Amino acid sequence: MSGPFSGSLVVVGTGPGKAELMTPATAATLARATDLVGYGPYLERVPERSGQCRHASDNRVELDRARHALSLAASGRQVVVVSGGDPGVFAMAAAVCEQIERGEAAWRQLDVAVVPGVTAMLAVAARAGAPLGHDFCAISLSDNLKSWATIERRLKAAAEADFVIALYNPASKARPHQLGEAFALLRSIKAGETPVLFVRAAGSAEAKVVATTLAEADASVADMRTLVIVGASTTRRVGRWVYTPRGAKP
Amino acid sequence: MSGPFSGSLVVVGTGPGKAELMTPATAATLARATDLVGYGPYLERVPERSGQCRHASDNRVELDRARHALSLAASGRQVVVVSGGDPGVFAMAAAVCEQIERGEAAWRQLDVAVVPGVTAMLAVAARAGAPLGHDFCAISLSDNLKSWATIERRLKAAAEADFVIALYNPASKARPHQLGEAFALLRSIKAGETPVLFVRAAGSAEAKVVATTLAEADASVADMRTLVIVGASTTRRVGRWVYTPRGAKP
Question: How far from A161 is each of A26, A244, A246, B68, B161, CA to CA, in Å?
Protein backbone atom coordinates (compact mmCIF):
# COMPACT_ATOMS: atom_id res chain seq x y z
CA MET A 1 0.00 0.00 0.00
CA SER A 2 1.33 3.45 -0.88
CA GLY A 3 0.21 7.04 -0.35
CA PRO A 4 -2.75 8.40 1.56
CA PHE A 5 -5.33 5.85 0.40
CA SER A 6 -6.48 2.66 2.06
CA GLY A 7 -8.04 1.45 -1.21
CA SER A 8 -6.31 -0.19 -4.11
CA LEU A 9 -6.85 -1.00 -7.76
CA VAL A 10 -5.55 -4.05 -9.62
CA VAL A 11 -6.12 -4.63 -13.34
CA VAL A 12 -6.39 -8.29 -14.32
CA GLY A 13 -7.30 -10.41 -17.33
CA THR A 14 -9.34 -13.58 -17.12
CA GLY A 15 -7.36 -15.19 -19.92
CA PRO A 16 -8.84 -16.53 -23.15
CA GLY A 17 -11.82 -18.31 -21.56
CA LYS A 18 -11.29 -21.52 -19.58
CA ALA A 19 -10.55 -21.14 -15.87
CA GLU A 20 -7.48 -23.36 -16.31
CA LEU A 21 -5.91 -20.60 -18.43
CA MET A 22 -6.35 -17.90 -15.78
CA THR A 23 -3.17 -17.31 -13.77
CA PRO A 24 -3.30 -18.14 -10.05
CA ALA A 25 -2.16 -14.55 -9.38
CA THR A 26 -5.31 -13.34 -11.11
CA ALA A 27 -7.57 -15.78 -9.26
CA ALA A 28 -6.08 -14.72 -5.91
CA THR A 29 -6.50 -11.04 -6.79
CA LEU A 30 -10.15 -11.59 -7.72
CA ALA A 31 -10.77 -13.40 -4.44
CA ARG A 32 -9.48 -10.45 -2.39
CA ALA A 33 -11.52 -7.76 -4.16
CA THR A 34 -14.38 -5.85 -2.57
CA ASP A 35 -15.45 -4.50 -5.97
CA LEU A 36 -15.19 -5.91 -9.49
CA VAL A 37 -15.45 -3.50 -12.40
CA GLY A 38 -15.64 -4.66 -16.01
CA TYR A 39 -17.45 -5.38 -19.22
CA GLY A 40 -20.39 -7.67 -18.38
CA PRO A 41 -19.33 -10.83 -20.26
CA TYR A 42 -15.89 -10.77 -18.63
CA LEU A 43 -17.37 -10.34 -15.15
CA GLU A 44 -19.57 -13.35 -15.81
CA ARG A 45 -16.44 -15.52 -16.03
CA VAL A 46 -15.59 -14.70 -12.42
CA PRO A 47 -17.14 -16.98 -9.76
CA GLU A 48 -19.66 -15.15 -7.54
CA ARG A 49 -18.45 -14.40 -4.04
CA SER A 50 -20.66 -13.09 -1.27
CA GLY A 51 -20.00 -9.53 -0.16
CA GLN A 52 -18.32 -8.61 -3.42
CA CYS A 53 -19.92 -5.80 -5.44
CA ARG A 54 -20.03 -6.10 -9.22
CA HIS A 55 -20.08 -3.07 -11.46
CA ALA A 56 -20.81 -4.32 -14.98
CA SER A 57 -20.59 -1.87 -17.83
CA ASP A 58 -21.08 -1.85 -21.54
CA ASN A 59 -18.35 -2.41 -24.09
CA ARG A 60 -16.58 0.66 -25.52
CA VAL A 61 -16.82 2.78 -22.38
CA GLU A 62 -13.33 1.95 -21.19
CA LEU A 63 -12.42 5.41 -19.94
CA ASP A 64 -15.64 5.82 -17.95
CA ARG A 65 -15.11 2.38 -16.45
CA ALA A 66 -11.51 3.24 -15.52
CA ARG A 67 -12.63 6.50 -13.88
CA HIS A 68 -15.29 4.69 -11.91
CA ALA A 69 -12.76 2.10 -10.74
CA LEU A 70 -10.26 4.77 -9.67
CA SER A 71 -12.98 6.66 -7.75
CA LEU A 72 -13.97 3.49 -5.92
CA ALA A 73 -10.33 2.79 -5.02
CA ALA A 74 -9.89 6.38 -3.83
CA SER A 75 -12.91 5.89 -1.58
CA GLY A 76 -11.15 2.99 0.15
CA ARG A 77 -12.40 -0.03 -1.78
CA GLN A 78 -10.21 -2.93 -2.95
CA VAL A 79 -11.06 -2.71 -6.62
CA VAL A 80 -10.24 -5.17 -9.39
CA VAL A 81 -10.77 -4.16 -13.00
CA VAL A 82 -11.52 -7.25 -15.07
CA SER A 83 -10.47 -7.56 -18.72
CA GLY A 84 -10.50 -10.64 -20.89
CA GLY A 85 -7.18 -12.13 -22.01
CA ASP A 86 -4.24 -10.08 -20.79
CA PRO A 87 -5.18 -6.69 -19.34
CA GLY A 88 -2.28 -4.96 -21.12
CA VAL A 89 -3.13 -5.98 -24.71
CA PHE A 90 -5.94 -3.92 -26.26
CA ALA A 91 -7.59 -3.90 -22.84
CA MET A 92 -8.15 -2.02 -19.60
CA ALA A 93 -4.63 -1.39 -18.25
CA ALA A 94 -4.05 1.40 -20.78
CA ALA A 95 -7.43 2.99 -19.99
CA VAL A 96 -6.62 2.99 -16.27
CA CYS A 97 -3.22 4.61 -16.93
CA GLU A 98 -4.90 7.17 -19.16
CA GLN A 99 -7.37 8.11 -16.41
CA ILE A 100 -4.56 8.32 -13.86
CA GLU A 101 -3.03 10.92 -16.18
CA ARG A 102 -6.28 12.79 -16.93
CA GLY A 103 -8.09 12.43 -13.64
CA GLU A 104 -7.70 13.72 -10.11
CA ALA A 105 -4.10 14.44 -9.10
CA ALA A 106 -4.51 12.38 -5.92
CA TRP A 107 -5.14 9.24 -8.00
CA ARG A 108 -1.41 9.16 -8.76
CA GLN A 109 -0.88 8.22 -5.11
CA LEU A 110 -3.18 5.21 -5.33
CA ASP A 111 -1.88 1.68 -4.90
CA VAL A 112 -2.29 0.39 -8.48
CA ALA A 113 -0.99 -2.80 -10.05
CA VAL A 114 -1.43 -4.88 -13.20
CA VAL A 115 -1.39 -8.71 -13.20
CA PRO A 116 -0.52 -10.32 -16.55
CA GLY A 117 -2.60 -13.01 -18.22
CA VAL A 118 -2.77 -15.13 -21.36
CA THR A 119 -3.75 -12.93 -24.29
CA ALA A 120 -5.96 -14.35 -27.05
CA MET A 121 -3.27 -14.73 -29.72
CA LEU A 122 -1.27 -17.10 -27.48
CA ALA A 123 -4.27 -19.39 -27.00
CA VAL A 124 -4.98 -19.23 -30.71
CA ALA A 125 -1.38 -20.06 -31.55
CA ALA A 126 -1.35 -23.00 -29.13
CA ARG A 127 -4.47 -24.45 -30.77
CA ALA A 128 -2.86 -24.24 -34.19
CA GLY A 129 0.73 -25.29 -33.38
CA ALA A 130 3.22 -22.43 -33.32
CA PRO A 131 2.32 -19.74 -35.86
CA LEU A 132 3.88 -17.06 -33.58
CA GLY A 133 7.15 -18.98 -33.39
CA HIS A 134 9.07 -16.10 -34.88
CA ASP A 135 8.86 -12.28 -35.22
CA PHE A 136 5.24 -11.18 -35.15
CA CYS A 137 2.99 -8.20 -34.60
CA ALA A 138 -0.45 -7.59 -33.16
CA ILE A 139 -2.76 -5.08 -34.81
CA SER A 140 -6.29 -4.14 -33.75
CA LEU A 141 -8.50 -3.65 -36.80
CA SER A 142 -10.90 -1.46 -34.83
CA ASP A 143 -10.91 2.09 -36.13
CA ASN A 144 -12.98 3.42 -33.26
CA LEU A 145 -9.93 5.15 -31.85
CA LYS A 146 -7.48 5.37 -34.76
CA SER A 147 -7.79 6.09 -38.45
CA TRP A 148 -8.12 3.36 -41.04
CA ALA A 149 -5.11 4.92 -42.81
CA THR A 150 -2.98 4.13 -39.74
CA ILE A 151 -4.18 0.55 -39.78
CA GLU A 152 -3.37 0.21 -43.48
CA ARG A 153 0.09 1.68 -42.95
CA ARG A 154 0.81 -0.88 -40.24
CA LEU A 155 -0.56 -3.81 -42.25
CA LYS A 156 1.60 -2.80 -45.22
CA ALA A 157 4.74 -2.41 -43.11
CA ALA A 158 4.14 -5.73 -41.35
CA ALA A 159 3.59 -7.53 -44.65
CA GLU A 160 6.62 -5.98 -46.34
CA ALA A 161 8.92 -6.78 -43.41
CA ASP A 162 7.50 -10.34 -43.29
CA PHE A 163 6.11 -10.39 -39.76
CA VAL A 164 3.49 -12.92 -38.75
CA ILE A 165 0.38 -10.76 -38.18
CA ALA A 166 -2.19 -11.31 -35.42
CA LEU A 167 -5.38 -9.35 -36.05
CA TYR A 168 -7.38 -8.46 -32.94
CA ASN A 169 -10.96 -7.17 -33.30
CA PRO A 170 -11.09 -8.29 -36.93
CA ALA A 171 -14.81 -7.65 -37.34
CA SER A 172 -17.89 -6.35 -35.61
CA LYS A 173 -21.42 -5.52 -36.68
CA ALA A 174 -20.38 -1.89 -37.04
CA ARG A 175 -17.32 -2.77 -39.14
CA PRO A 176 -18.20 -5.71 -41.41
CA HIS A 177 -15.95 -4.78 -44.36
CA GLN A 178 -12.60 -4.01 -42.81
CA LEU A 179 -11.18 -7.52 -42.61
CA GLY A 180 -11.91 -8.00 -46.32
CA GLU A 181 -10.08 -4.76 -47.07
CA ALA A 182 -7.17 -5.89 -44.89
CA PHE A 183 -6.95 -9.22 -46.76
CA ALA A 184 -7.02 -7.37 -50.10
CA LEU A 185 -4.13 -5.18 -49.00
CA LEU A 186 -2.14 -8.17 -47.70
CA ARG A 187 -2.77 -10.12 -50.94
CA SER A 188 -1.12 -7.28 -52.89
CA ILE A 189 2.12 -7.93 -50.96
CA LYS A 190 2.15 -11.52 -49.67
CA ALA A 191 1.92 -14.84 -51.51
CA GLY A 192 -1.52 -16.38 -51.97
CA GLU A 193 -0.42 -19.61 -50.29
CA THR A 194 0.45 -17.81 -47.01
CA PRO A 195 -1.31 -19.71 -44.19
CA VAL A 196 -4.20 -17.90 -42.53
CA LEU A 197 -5.91 -19.02 -39.32
CA PHE A 198 -9.33 -18.01 -38.05
CA VAL A 199 -9.74 -19.11 -34.45
CA ARG A 200 -12.98 -18.46 -32.61
CA ALA A 201 -13.23 -18.62 -28.81
CA ALA A 202 -9.72 -20.07 -28.65
CA GLY A 203 -9.53 -20.60 -24.91
CA SER A 204 -12.98 -22.11 -24.48
CA ALA A 205 -14.50 -25.54 -24.89
CA GLU A 206 -16.24 -24.37 -28.09
CA ALA A 207 -13.00 -23.34 -29.79
CA LYS A 208 -13.10 -23.55 -33.56
CA VAL A 209 -10.06 -23.40 -35.86
CA VAL A 210 -10.21 -22.75 -39.59
CA ALA A 211 -6.85 -23.05 -41.39
CA THR A 212 -6.77 -21.73 -44.94
CA THR A 213 -4.60 -19.59 -47.22
CA LEU A 214 -4.50 -15.88 -47.87
CA ALA A 215 -5.80 -16.48 -51.40
CA GLU A 216 -8.83 -18.34 -50.06
CA ALA A 217 -9.42 -16.52 -46.78
CA ASP A 218 -13.07 -15.49 -46.46
CA ALA A 219 -13.45 -12.48 -44.20
CA SER A 220 -17.05 -13.37 -43.37
CA VAL A 221 -15.79 -16.32 -41.27
CA ALA A 222 -14.69 -13.84 -38.57
CA ASP A 223 -16.84 -12.26 -35.89
CA MET A 224 -16.14 -10.38 -32.65
CA ARG A 225 -14.90 -13.51 -30.89
CA THR A 226 -12.49 -14.49 -33.68
CA LEU A 227 -8.79 -13.79 -33.85
CA VAL A 228 -7.04 -14.00 -37.21
CA ILE A 229 -3.39 -14.89 -37.77
CA VAL A 230 -1.73 -14.32 -41.15
CA GLY A 231 1.58 -16.14 -41.55
CA ALA A 232 4.99 -14.91 -42.64
CA SER A 233 6.65 -16.22 -45.81
CA THR A 234 8.23 -18.98 -43.70
CA THR A 235 5.00 -20.08 -41.97
CA ARG A 236 4.21 -23.70 -42.88
CA ARG A 237 1.37 -26.14 -42.65
CA VAL A 238 2.22 -29.71 -41.65
CA GLY A 239 -0.76 -31.99 -41.18
CA ARG A 240 -3.02 -30.27 -38.68
CA TRP A 241 -0.25 -27.90 -37.51
CA VAL A 242 0.65 -24.41 -38.63
CA TYR A 243 4.01 -23.12 -37.45
CA THR A 244 6.65 -20.50 -38.13
CA PRO A 245 10.20 -21.87 -37.84
CA ARG A 246 12.54 -19.96 -35.60
CA GLY A 247 14.20 -18.57 -38.70
CA ALA A 248 16.50 -19.81 -41.43
CA LYS A 249 19.52 -17.87 -42.59
CA PRO A 250 19.31 -17.10 -46.30
CA MET B 1 -5.35 -40.03 -27.58
CA SER B 2 -5.05 -40.44 -31.34
CA GLY B 3 -3.24 -42.79 -33.69
CA PRO B 4 -1.23 -45.90 -32.96
CA PHE B 5 0.73 -44.53 -30.00
CA SER B 6 0.04 -44.80 -26.29
CA GLY B 7 2.47 -41.95 -25.57
CA SER B 8 1.84 -38.24 -25.85
CA LEU B 9 3.70 -34.96 -26.03
CA VAL B 10 2.56 -31.62 -24.61
CA VAL B 11 4.55 -28.41 -24.99
CA VAL B 12 4.14 -25.99 -22.08
CA GLY B 13 5.67 -22.74 -20.80
CA THR B 14 6.37 -22.06 -17.15
CA GLY B 15 5.50 -18.39 -17.54
CA PRO B 16 7.82 -15.51 -16.72
CA GLY B 17 9.08 -16.89 -13.40
CA LYS B 18 6.82 -16.92 -10.34
CA ALA B 19 4.63 -19.99 -9.88
CA GLU B 20 1.58 -17.71 -9.54
CA LEU B 21 2.02 -16.74 -13.19
CA MET B 22 1.99 -20.34 -14.46
CA THR B 23 -1.43 -21.36 -15.78
CA PRO B 24 -3.25 -24.15 -13.91
CA ALA B 25 -3.47 -26.03 -17.23
CA THR B 26 0.34 -26.04 -17.35
CA ALA B 27 0.70 -27.15 -13.74
CA ALA B 28 -1.78 -30.01 -14.29
CA THR B 29 0.04 -31.08 -17.46
CA LEU B 30 3.39 -31.11 -15.63
CA ALA B 31 1.90 -33.24 -12.83
CA ARG B 32 0.74 -35.91 -15.30
CA ALA B 33 4.05 -36.27 -17.16
CA THR B 34 6.29 -39.32 -16.99
CA ASP B 35 9.13 -37.39 -18.67
CA LEU B 36 10.08 -33.72 -18.66
CA VAL B 37 12.32 -32.43 -21.44
CA GLY B 38 13.77 -28.93 -21.46
CA TYR B 39 16.55 -26.44 -20.99
CA GLY B 40 17.99 -26.96 -17.49
CA PRO B 41 17.01 -23.63 -15.87
CA TYR B 42 13.38 -24.02 -16.98
CA LEU B 43 13.17 -27.58 -15.63
CA GLU B 44 14.45 -26.29 -12.29
CA ARG B 45 11.30 -24.19 -11.98
CA VAL B 46 9.17 -27.34 -11.96
CA PRO B 47 8.62 -29.00 -8.56
CA GLU B 48 10.29 -32.43 -8.28
CA ARG B 49 7.88 -35.37 -8.41
CA SER B 50 8.88 -38.94 -7.67
CA GLY B 51 8.88 -41.31 -10.64
CA GLN B 52 9.19 -38.48 -13.14
CA CYS B 53 12.28 -38.54 -15.40
CA ARG B 54 13.98 -35.25 -16.22
CA HIS B 55 15.92 -34.77 -19.43
CA ALA B 56 17.77 -31.46 -19.10
CA SER B 57 19.59 -30.13 -22.11
CA ASP B 58 21.70 -27.16 -23.02
CA ASN B 59 20.43 -23.97 -24.54
CA ARG B 60 20.46 -23.67 -28.37
CA VAL B 61 19.83 -27.35 -29.08
CA GLU B 62 16.11 -26.93 -29.61
CA LEU B 63 15.78 -29.29 -32.56
CA ASP B 64 17.72 -32.10 -30.85
CA ARG B 65 15.58 -31.62 -27.75
CA ALA B 66 12.38 -31.75 -29.82
CA ARG B 67 13.51 -34.94 -31.57
CA HIS B 68 14.36 -36.55 -28.24
CA ALA B 69 10.94 -35.62 -26.86
CA LEU B 70 9.13 -37.00 -29.91
CA SER B 71 11.11 -40.27 -29.69
CA LEU B 72 10.18 -40.65 -26.04
CA ALA B 73 6.51 -40.03 -26.81
CA ALA B 74 6.64 -42.54 -29.67
CA SER B 75 8.05 -45.09 -27.22
CA GLY B 76 4.94 -44.71 -25.05
CA ARG B 77 5.97 -42.06 -22.53
CA GLN B 78 3.80 -39.11 -21.44
CA VAL B 79 6.25 -36.37 -22.35
CA VAL B 80 6.09 -32.68 -21.49
CA VAL B 81 8.46 -30.25 -23.19
CA VAL B 82 9.13 -27.32 -20.86
CA SER B 83 9.79 -23.81 -22.17
CA GLY B 84 9.92 -20.58 -20.23
CA GLY B 85 7.18 -17.99 -20.81
CA ASP B 86 4.74 -19.10 -23.48
CA PRO B 87 5.87 -22.14 -25.49
CA GLY B 88 4.75 -20.57 -28.77
CA VAL B 89 6.77 -17.34 -28.62
CA PHE B 90 10.45 -17.80 -29.54
CA ALA B 91 10.30 -21.16 -27.79
CA MET B 92 9.86 -24.92 -28.14
CA ALA B 93 6.46 -25.32 -29.85
CA ALA B 94 7.93 -24.30 -33.22
CA ALA B 95 10.88 -26.68 -32.79
CA VAL B 96 8.51 -29.56 -32.05
CA CYS B 97 6.42 -28.75 -35.14
CA GLU B 98 9.61 -28.54 -37.21
CA GLN B 99 10.71 -31.99 -36.04
CA ILE B 100 7.25 -33.43 -36.73
CA GLU B 101 7.78 -32.22 -40.30
CA ARG B 102 11.39 -33.39 -40.62
CA GLY B 103 11.32 -36.54 -38.51
CA GLU B 104 9.77 -39.98 -38.71
CA ALA B 105 6.51 -40.12 -40.63
CA ALA B 106 4.80 -41.96 -37.75
CA TRP B 107 5.34 -38.96 -35.46
CA ARG B 108 2.52 -37.20 -37.31
CA GLN B 109 0.14 -39.70 -35.67
CA LEU B 110 1.31 -38.79 -32.16
CA ASP B 111 -1.00 -37.16 -29.65
CA VAL B 112 0.60 -33.67 -29.47
CA ALA B 113 -0.73 -30.50 -27.84
CA VAL B 114 0.46 -27.04 -26.85
CA VAL B 115 -0.68 -25.27 -23.66
CA PRO B 116 -0.37 -21.46 -23.70
CA GLY B 117 1.35 -19.44 -21.00
CA VAL B 118 2.28 -15.87 -20.09
CA THR B 119 5.08 -14.70 -22.37
CA ALA B 120 7.77 -12.37 -21.01
CA MET B 121 6.59 -9.18 -22.70
CA LEU B 122 3.21 -9.39 -20.95
CA ALA B 123 4.85 -9.63 -17.52
CA VAL B 124 7.17 -6.78 -18.44
CA ALA B 125 4.27 -4.66 -19.63
CA ALA B 126 2.30 -5.34 -16.44
CA ARG B 127 5.24 -4.20 -14.30
CA ALA B 128 5.50 -0.95 -16.23
CA GLY B 129 1.80 -0.11 -16.74
CA ALA B 130 0.51 -0.74 -20.25
CA PRO B 131 3.19 -0.10 -22.87
CA LEU B 132 1.64 -2.78 -25.13
CA GLY B 133 -1.77 -1.12 -24.93
CA HIS B 134 -1.87 -0.60 -28.66
CA ASP B 135 -0.44 -2.11 -31.88
CA PHE B 136 2.91 -3.74 -31.15
CA CYS B 137 5.42 -6.22 -32.48
CA ALA B 138 7.85 -8.72 -31.00
CA ILE B 139 11.28 -9.15 -32.56
CA SER B 140 14.05 -11.50 -31.44
CA LEU B 141 17.43 -9.80 -31.77
CA SER B 142 19.21 -13.14 -31.92
CA ASP B 143 20.85 -13.68 -35.29
CA ASN B 144 21.70 -17.33 -34.62
CA LEU B 145 18.98 -18.39 -37.03
CA LYS B 146 18.30 -15.34 -39.19
CA SER B 147 20.44 -12.66 -40.76
CA TRP B 148 21.09 -9.32 -39.08
CA ALA B 149 19.81 -7.69 -42.29
CA THR B 150 16.38 -9.29 -41.68
CA ILE B 151 16.36 -7.96 -38.13
CA GLU B 152 17.26 -4.45 -39.32
CA ARG B 153 14.54 -4.55 -41.96
CA ARG B 154 11.94 -5.46 -39.32
CA LEU B 155 13.16 -2.84 -36.86
CA LYS B 156 12.98 -0.18 -39.58
CA ALA B 157 9.49 -1.21 -40.69
CA ALA B 158 8.22 -1.34 -37.11
CA ALA B 159 9.64 2.09 -36.32
CA GLU B 160 8.32 3.69 -39.50
CA ALA B 161 4.82 2.25 -38.99
CA ASP B 162 4.92 3.37 -35.33
CA PHE B 163 4.48 0.01 -33.61
CA VAL B 164 5.50 -0.44 -29.98
CA ILE B 165 8.48 -2.81 -30.22
CA ALA B 166 9.25 -5.62 -27.77
CA LEU B 167 12.80 -6.92 -28.16
CA TYR B 168 13.35 -10.53 -27.07
CA ASN B 169 16.91 -11.85 -26.64
CA PRO B 170 18.33 -8.32 -26.73
CA ALA B 171 21.84 -9.34 -25.71
CA SER B 172 24.05 -12.28 -24.89
CA LYS B 173 27.75 -12.79 -24.30
CA ALA B 174 28.12 -13.84 -27.92
CA ARG B 175 26.22 -10.79 -29.20
CA PRO B 176 27.10 -7.79 -27.03
CA HIS B 177 26.81 -5.08 -29.72
CA GLN B 178 23.50 -5.78 -31.41
CA LEU B 179 21.19 -3.92 -29.05
CA GLY B 180 23.34 -0.80 -29.43
CA GLU B 181 23.07 -1.12 -33.19
CA ALA B 182 19.32 -1.59 -32.91
CA PHE B 183 18.99 1.57 -30.77
CA ALA B 184 21.11 3.52 -33.31
CA LEU B 185 18.80 2.41 -36.10
CA LEU B 186 15.67 3.28 -34.10
CA ARG B 187 17.10 6.71 -33.16
CA SER B 188 17.42 7.52 -36.87
CA ILE B 189 13.63 7.14 -37.22
CA LYS B 190 11.96 7.71 -33.83
CA ALA B 191 12.02 10.71 -31.49
CA GLY B 192 14.68 10.78 -28.78
CA GLU B 193 12.04 11.17 -26.06
CA THR B 194 10.36 7.86 -26.99
CA PRO B 195 10.00 5.85 -23.74
CA VAL B 196 12.23 2.77 -23.46
CA LEU B 197 11.90 0.09 -20.78
CA PHE B 198 14.50 -2.43 -19.69
CA VAL B 199 12.91 -5.07 -17.50
CA ARG B 200 15.01 -7.86 -16.04
CA ALA B 201 13.46 -11.06 -14.65
CA ALA B 202 10.00 -9.51 -14.96
CA GLY B 203 8.01 -12.36 -13.48
CA SER B 204 10.29 -13.03 -10.53
CA ALA B 205 10.76 -11.55 -7.07
CA GLU B 206 14.01 -9.90 -8.25
CA ALA B 207 12.33 -8.01 -11.07
CA LYS B 208 14.05 -4.75 -11.99
CA VAL B 209 12.56 -2.02 -14.18
CA VAL B 210 14.57 0.78 -15.79
CA ALA B 211 12.45 3.39 -17.61
CA THR B 212 14.36 5.81 -19.80
CA THR B 213 14.18 7.38 -23.26
CA LEU B 214 15.49 6.26 -26.62
CA ALA B 215 18.02 9.12 -26.60
CA GLU B 216 19.42 7.97 -23.25
CA ALA B 217 18.96 4.20 -23.53
CA ASP B 218 22.19 2.40 -22.64
CA ALA B 219 22.37 -0.99 -24.33
CA SER B 220 24.78 -2.33 -21.71
CA VAL B 221 21.90 -2.37 -19.17
CA ALA B 222 20.47 -5.46 -20.93
CA ASP B 223 21.53 -9.06 -20.49
CA MET B 224 20.05 -12.45 -21.41
CA ARG B 225 17.29 -12.12 -18.81
CA THR B 226 16.23 -8.63 -19.92
CA LEU B 227 13.38 -7.73 -22.22
CA VAL B 228 13.37 -4.29 -23.85
CA ILE B 229 10.27 -2.36 -24.92
CA VAL B 230 10.58 0.70 -27.17
CA GLY B 231 7.43 2.84 -27.26
CA ALA B 232 5.41 4.19 -30.16
CA SER B 233 5.06 7.92 -30.77
CA THR B 234 1.97 7.88 -28.53
CA THR B 235 3.58 5.99 -25.63
CA ARG B 236 3.61 8.17 -22.51
CA ARG B 237 5.19 8.26 -19.10
CA VAL B 238 3.00 9.29 -16.17
CA GLY B 239 4.65 9.08 -12.78
CA ARG B 240 5.91 5.52 -12.48
CA TRP B 241 3.74 4.27 -15.32
CA VAL B 242 4.49 3.88 -19.02
CA TYR B 243 1.50 3.30 -21.27
CA THR B 244 0.34 3.42 -24.86
CA PRO B 245 -3.17 4.84 -25.22
CA ARG B 246 -5.59 2.77 -27.22
CA GLY B 247 -5.20 5.25 -30.06
CA ALA B 248 -6.29 8.77 -30.86
CA LYS B 249 -7.78 9.72 -34.18
CA PRO B 250 -5.72 12.44 -35.84
Answer: 36, 15, 16, 34, 11
